[in-house]
Amino acid sequence: MPKPTIAVIGGGVAGLAAAVTLAQANAHVTVIETNHQLGGRARGIEYQGLMLDNGQHILLGAYRETLRLLQLTQAPLHETLQRMPLALKVFDLKLQAYFQLNAPAWLPAPLHILAGLISAQGLTLHDKWCALRLMVWMKLHDFTLADDETLAIFLTRRHQTQALIQSLWEPLCLAALNTPLQQASAQIFLNVLRDSFNQQAHDADILLARTDLTSLISTPWADYVAHQGGCIRASTTVKSIRQTTDGYVLITHEKESLFSHVIIAVGPHQLKHLTKTLPLLSQPFEGFSYQPITTVYMQYEASIRLSAPMLGMVNSTSQWVFDRGQICGQTGLLAVVISAHADLNIDQTLLAETIHTELTQLIPQLKQPIWHKVVTEKRATFSCDGKLVRPQNQTEYSNLYLAGDYTAGDYPATIEGAVRSGIAAANLILQRS
């Protein structure tokens, strides 16, 4: 049997994960990416002489496949990632009070989470009892629902208090699913809690990149593919795909290329531009909607420092604030994340002024920023709604596969979800070759 020739259309996280998996198996793989820069929604951008990110991403200790590929392709993780035991610190602008939860890493899972809830600050005894009761229920039911529902309904049925929802469950939902509680899939949320809270204590660790995401992910992964004999074709747009008896012809502006197998690793909203000649691929994506994420970078004087590398905020415009001085040495630079928001309908300068006013409640001595940068990804993630039907990696067409965080799986639109999907699509080819 001739060795398969495999095209991966899309050089984001899912496409690169597929390519690395194929390259590790010595398969002949070509990655084709429209943009000049790889990484998709997880990429670095340069501004004011600094390398930022198009969005402030976090990893979790439970992201085993992502961590495995990082270890495979680059320097030891302690040099590229800052690992912190789970410590949530959320400031309520309305109440002017903190909620704090620290999970002791020396206890096994899930006892470390239970201990963290018991000792949490900013909760009443009743709040803690309700949270503990929910954790026990999830454990007894193996973090599985008989039927999916929205997270808002689930939390109400499980008697979670408003203080718990606002300070704990909603910030975690927005961070993990980037979807409002009233829409978010309770089952997908439970999957994230299962993997993070229920297996090993370090699974709940928060991992923050010490560098930009291009340097962390796309550059070493692309270099690995090239070193293994693969090909990376950036700034190349696939105009259409034509099925033949020998595989698939990919038509770009430069040429037509024949491949025996194809993995399409672009967002579902981009598929319609590729699949006009593959009508069976259009149907599964009509139910998808999307959520934005806006990141506001605020550069202050170098002495400015948060009380922790990341802080949550409620009753505010934003949900999370990251101190990039503590994370990656960019002193005085704060990255403020606004998740799953409606249209902001506000000038970027006015938005930065609003964010600054809120930050002064965290740091009263804060002076006006030196500069600001607003980055909005309008389709940062698919909306991880309850009962959303997500397509499989295998399509109706022989040797044609899908990869992306939106495909069927346990995870929402996260780096780990994209990585798992890319690996799954690659393994389907390897198993059948």
> Any idea of the CATH class of the largest domain?
Alpha Beta
Strand count: 20
| Largest sheet data | 7 strands, mixed
Number of helix segments? Answer: 12
CATH-defined fold name of the largest domain? FAD/NAD(P)-binding domain
How far the N terminus sits from the C terminus, by CA atoms, comes to: 8 Å
What is the radius of gyration?
A: 22 Å
**Strands in their spatial order, largest beta sheet:** 8-7-16-17-18-15-19
Share of residues in strands: 15-25%
Return the average pLDDT rounded to an integer. 93
Tell me the count of domains: 3
Q: Which regions contain 5 or more consecutive residues with pLDDT less than 50? A: none
**CATH homologous superfamily annotation of the largest domain:** FAD/NAD(P)-binding domain
- Overall structural class, as computed from helix and strand content, comes to alpha/beta
Name given to the CATH architecture of the largest domain? 3-Layer(bba) Sandwich
Portion in helices = 25-40%
3D shape: globular
